[in-house]
Amino acid sequence: MAAAAAAAGGGPQPPQPELPAPGLALDKAATAAHLKAALSRPDNRAGAEELQALLERVLSAERPLAAAADSEEAAAAGGGGGPGAAEEEALEWCKCLLAGGGGYDEFCAAVRAYDPAALCGLVWTANFVAYRCRTCGISPCMSLCAECFHQGDHTGHDFNMFRSQAGGACDCGDSNVMRESGFCKRHQIKSSSNIPCVPKDLLMMSEFVLPRFIFCLIQYLREGYNEPADVPSEKDLNKVLQLLEPQISFLEDLTKMGGAMRSVLTQVLTNQQNYKDLTSGLGENSCAKKSHEKYLIALKSSGLTYPEDKLVYGIQEPSAGTSTLAVQGFAGATGTLGQLDSSDEEDQDGSQGLGKRKRVKLSSSTKDQSIMDVLKHKSFLEELLFWTIKYEFPQKMVTFLLNMLPDQEYKVAFTKTFVQHYAFIMKTLKKSHESDTMSNRIVHISVQLFSNEELARQVTEECQLLDIMVTVLLYMMESCLIKSELQDEENSLHVVVNCGEALLKNNTYWPLVSDFINILSHQSVAKRFLEDHGLLVTWMNFVSFFQGMNLNKRELNEHVEFESQTYYAAFAAELEACAQPMWGLLSHCKVRETQEYTKNVVRYCIEALQDWFDAINFVDEPAPNQVTFHLPLHRYYAMFLSKAVKCQELDLDSVLPDQEMLMKLMIHPLQIQASLAEIHSNMWVRNGLQIKGQAMTYVQSHFCNSMIDPDIYLLQVCASRLDPDYFISSVFERFKVVDLLTMASQHQNTVLDAEHERSMLEGALTFLVILLSLRLHLGMSDDEILRAEMVAQLCMNDRTHSSLLDLIPENPNPKSGIIPGSYSFESVLSAVADFKAPVFEPGGSMQQGMYTPKAEVWDQEFDPVMVILRTVYRRDVQSAMDRYTAFLKQSGKFPGNPWPPYKKRTPLHPSYKGLMRLLHCKTLHIVLFTLLYKILMDHQNLSEHVLCMVLYLIELGLENSADEESDEEASVCGPERCHDSWFPGSNLVSNMRHFINYVRVRVPETAPEVKRDSSASTSSDSLGSLHNSGTAQVFSLVAERRKKFQEIINRSNSEANQVVRPKTSSKWSAPGSALQLTTAILEIKESILSLLIKLHHKLSGKQNSYYPPWLDDIEILIQPEIPKYSHGDGITAVERILLKAALQSRMNKRIIEEICRKVTPPVPPKKITAAEKKTLDKEERRQKARERQQKLLAEFASRQKSFMETAMDVDSPENDIPMEIATAEPQVSEAVYDCVICGQSGPSSEDRPTGLVVLLQASSVLGQCRDNVEPKKLPISEEEQIYPWDTCAAVHDVRLSLLQRYFKDSSCLLAVSIGWEGGVYVQTCGHTLHIDCHKSYMESLRNDQVLQGFSVDKGEFTCPLCRQFANSVLPCYPGNNVENNLWQRPSNKSIQDLIKEVEELQGRPGAFPVSISSETNLSKEMESVMKDIKNTTQKKYRDYSKTPGSPDNDFLFMYSVARTNLELELIHRGGNLCSGGASTAGKRSCLNQLFLVLALHMRLYSIDSEYNPWSKLTQLVEEMNSQLGNEEQPEVPILYHDVTSLLLIQILMMPQPLRKDHFTCIVKVLFTLLYTQALAALSVKCSEEDRSAWKHTGALKKNTCDAEKSYEVLLSFVISELSKGKLYHEEGTQECAMVSPIAWSPESMEKYLQDFCLPFLRITSLLQHHLFGEDLPSCQEEEEFSVLSSCLGLLPTFYQTEHPFISASCLDWPVPAFDIISQWCSEINSFTERHAEQGKALLIQESRWKLPHLLQLPENYNTIFQYYHRKTCSVCTKVPKDPAVCLVCGTFVCLKGLCCKQQSYCECVLHSQNCGAGTGIFLLINASVIIIIRGHRFCLWGSVYLDAHGEEDRDLRRGKPLYICKERYKVLEQQWISHTFDHINKRWGPHYNGL
Fold first, then answer.
1. What is the DSSP string of 1698-1753?
2. Are 871 and 695 in contact (CB under 8 A)?
3. pLDDT tens, 1392-1404?
4. 1778 and which of 293, 693, 1517, 1791 could share a cystine (Cβ 3.0–4.6 Å)?
5. Could you tell me the strand order of the sheet in which 1319-1330 lies?
6. CA-CA-CA-CA torsion sign (255, 259, 261, 267)
7. pLDDT tens-digit profile of 1304-1362?
């Protein structure tokens, strides 16, 4: 093999002894040692040659890939063994050679010792859990691995845990990225000083071997890449990569050896000489030649030349017809880009020419052109990166390249290489199929390189990083440009990106943009960018590609067929590619010194905008019915202006363009505002939902401060500098409501349908209010802005902390972390809001901690304007107003329906004072006057909202009026103003009192004004001369605007645009009017003041309601801020305005008084035409109908509510209103039931039985009881484990199997109860229905196709009345009611008589009134419900018999069902009966009915009388030893029987209904047995001495009168009886240790006996309560025994309770005590003869179980997460993708893991069946949520871990620290114990066994 390899190598064999065949490791080691020695000599040439030859052979590149491709060649070249073997061999050689003959592992350890690791540098891939601390981070991308994070100190910091999306690396130890205070313990020490120098010979071999190894890898990569005609298929690439897996892993391992090895690798990778020698492809080595050729081909085909013609062809693809034009536009726009450099390709040698790119002269400063020309590889590193890109960033390669980064020298070299390949990366990314994965890998690398400011600066200076990035982005976008259709579709020269292209749709540009944003966050880099004019021009050019993208055209006729979803792409692109870089740049323009930068940006922005206006052919009118939401150039301009004024103290006017440009600038943003109103008025419905989506996204919190805010700000700037009349009239024209603003009652709107008029008018006024009152960029400080935003969000709804963080628009500046200064966020939050901790009503939905506004915020800071601006959904505005109303009612400030309050604004920045001129221009005053008049006259299409906005504008005007009134006359300047006839000046204060007498209006001929005013029109001449007659209808708003625009344009360029003029103006005269208009003159005689006063009368509905307040209280004028006026409705608003008007001028005050003195005539009644009357009637009818409906609904709601209150409280068994099952009075003998389906009531009968709605479920809650009070803790380390041997279920299992080992099976099955695990629990909501009704109800459910949360086929349904979940119906037994007195009369029979009766009754079969044989409906139902009960639980929980299917099994199962239900009720009552009372659970209990069903079935099995325990309990039997044959197993001794089980058997065997005295008799008899058991157990527990002492004392008292009721006597007798057997004998010395050393005092013995008997007494009392309906008395814990025993009739009634209570006094022996005891003990003695140990164990029964609990969880969620999220599953030994842990038993399971699937059941479902009989409670580790599995359904319950703000963090998205919420956990546990998961949780779904 060696020879073959050498031959393949082709070189001449060096003169040296033949090397041993490289088969044995030993030989390898020897060879390596020999070579190392040879190389260590001073003259090491020979050694070097020898090594080279060896490596040539070992690492021959031909072998592996050729073998993969073609097996014959492989056999020839490699001599068998296949490719895998050859590579293994090569790697083995390398390891040996590196180690120089030593062991490889020792070598690794030796190298690690020299690791000066000051950096962690751990590289991770996607989905890894890492941490980010904003307090310690300098760069926002900083991240730490879990280990470094937990070893550093981050207490109180702003950190979070996150799942890495693209992968990353740990920055611990890197002071460029994070502050040193955050370093962990390992990386704090700058350890380089104390690390010894690396010995030369340690790494000597590495320096020789590694270059060859890496070259070999590169050859493999070259070989594997076959450049096909099309893109290489991924399969081929992956195949090659799989073959190379071991090599790359080997390199990766080398990097992990630490700093010493990394520096060797760096040398190798960056050494240019090595590369040249090995790869030049010279020499006779054919293989090397071949690989070099492949490399050249790959380079050529990568299209690394940006061919000169790229531009022309690139653009031709999208729109063939327009290519030349588009290119001209492009070349024009990039004027400064210079000529495209077309240097010839031929003059360079092949390899270089291939690497050429298109040269773009970016600016004169770019001297070093070669970077853009050629991709020439000079080192291994460069070619490795080239192939990494070619192969689309294979994960292993990426990890290797990143693992090297802690080496500083490498970091610089690698960064430069990365930048050099940047264009190539972009091209590969565009072609890639898996662009998502590739994007993530690119960012994984680049974020490590560019987050470091020092490095970024260096690369920017040395490699022109910025030029490369901007150019690459530009080229990338060029491939998807299309012609813009905005404005002038035919002649437009503007090109925009096409949002439908994959590049934009899939966000493929994301990695490049994100890199760009990342480097702009470094000040030094950003400054270079802002200084470089060429770059700015190119960048503006890039931004203009997005200007006007995704144009919407309004559909006027048909609904659009296909709703395009491109708007997502458009908004994302503007935010990421334009806005984010803009915020990045803005963050560096914060101080005065940076003025120059702003000037540069603004200058090039305006130039780009000017080009854009020219390109789209824009003059002065926007094209109708189209809108684009994307104006990034406008927004750049606006934001830099804002910064300039706010932070840099620039004079605004110095950076503003001329008036004409401002007029153009305002058009498109204004168009967007008008379109928003149109969209909300449903004028765009035919465009589908997506247009609404755009309108919402535009104002949504992540976009608003990059979209709507800059737009509004830009409009504010324009408004402050343009003529106010022009601006106001433009607004009304854009909103298409000019025609509406007429005094006439009818008008004709040529551009708008009547139904849209009202909402468009509201839109226009609201826009003006926002424009005039918003101060976001006009003088508010950052903290004020934050506060205003927060108040607005909180007023809409209470918010959680995280949703607030999300809703408050952050400044998306990459440096800022979450929010500029998140500390101020917390302080502002605590100032404006109160925290409402989560409340827990059981069954209430899980609430989160919420913040709600403080009262003073509602009082003073609620700002409706801000709310309107920030609402995505219109309903939120209403919600804010409703909350405001509620606050005012509650605090007693205002009872009615308030209007939005008027809020005082922060003062304007002086630069924007001009904005207030809008409020003082005549045009606005005319609009306000007209609207007030129209509202007063009740014209159509006006709303309260309009009035509200009108008053708001008037108030704004009064607040912001110029103080001096004196120059009113002066303000009228010359005749050119056409509004003089309306108002004299422009100041609102004086115009308010100006009376307008007549107005000439144009009205349709049908209007009422025309007919009425014939007389007036004759005298129109005389009127005309009056100074006060208003002019035309629209006061020629539009004409006025035209004139203004004309003037300005003529002034600036008189002839240039003149040509285009006719076309545009003709467009506006076009809409012809259908109706004839005629002119009429209206008599008005009002002023704004008089209109306001009349309005007050109208609103209050009283004549003369307004009385000037200052006449009574002159004080008002002195201190005007009166709280009385701050909240209220329209009346209050009018009063407030009049007061302000009076304050501003004495004239106004006088005029108001005058107006009030005149008795105002009533408002003229409107003439009503017939048509109008008809509509009015219709309205009135509708209104009445609505009121009727409301009334009905209210009544219905109240009925429903009262029902809910009585019936529906299913939330928890405690504290709810009981629901009577049977409502009959005691004297009625038949119970009456209501059927909730058919509504009839009546008794349940044999033919038509009624049933209770019940839910049957299997439950293992009882089995989870343990004998200690403290719940077990969830294991959070390997040492802690939970073993289930001490649970109730386990103990009972052991006991049963022990009995079955020694005794007869059938008798064992009567001696215990089952159902601790998988017992059937029956619960009801208390509603009843006829069983036949139920069947038809189920049929209808079956046919109902709606997806229910339950499965009808399994018999599931919801109660038709209360909708509680149920799955069966329990028939009610006809006949007597529970409260029937007949059976409860105490009889005076002796106990002996009663015992006889009981025995007889038990023996009598079928003593039921209904004979079982006759098949009635009732008996059928009884059987079917019994079947349901059996099928509820799994077979393994029913069958305990050794002989399968034996009747004893069913018998045992049936009485155990009763036991389970009683025990569970006891647990629901808290484990004891001290609280007493008929608990609600009792009232809703179905135990009585259940008992009857069980009894009926139990009677089918009669027990043989000789086995019947009753006789053993009540009769003395003569010794019958003879009968016991040796072959048969004995019966269970009566003392080993479970007494409670006996009780249930006895009672269920009796005919029902049972008589009370029989019941008491059974209890008395059983108590004697129980007591004896207690004594026996006690005797076993105490020590030998105690026993003998007790034996004596008791024997002395044996002959006293009440010996049978003295426990001492009885105990001594039991001891002496049992001593006859071997029970006590076994106790050797070792036993003594086990017995408790405590001495038994009489008190402690009495307590032991009582505790032993209590569980039985509790169950019996409950049973008595259910069977006979007696209430349970309540008592203290210590007297529970005596109270229960007297309640059960065990205590004689005359019993006095003065002296301490003795349990023995309850005994009532049916036969002489000593005889029966000795009979019982003899059974035990005969057993202990053989099995003393087991005999003893069976006597001591543990009967004191504590309440069941879920596992106790740790305080902090992180402890759970860190342990479990990396834990391997015990079944499949993998780390599960979705780990979960069971909260009942702590088992760790794979959720949804196919690895652990068994017979189609996934592990969680399987576990829920084994652990909880179908109920599972799992904590999902990666999501912090709890999931409940109930049978075949599951639901997400919520989380019991909340963060510091009381919020869940599902899926750990926010990654904040989480803490246990004890209340929630208690609620969960409560639902588990009370089995109410089904009722309380609403969202259930089927899991199909897949969890």
1. SSPP-GGGG---SS-HHHHHHHHHHHHHHHHTT-HHHHHHHHS----PPPP-PPBP
2. no
3. 778 888 877 776 6
4. 1791
5. 1319-1330, 1250-1259, 1368-1371
6. positive
7. 888 888 888 888 999 999 999 889 999 999 999 998 888 876 666 788 888 889 898 88
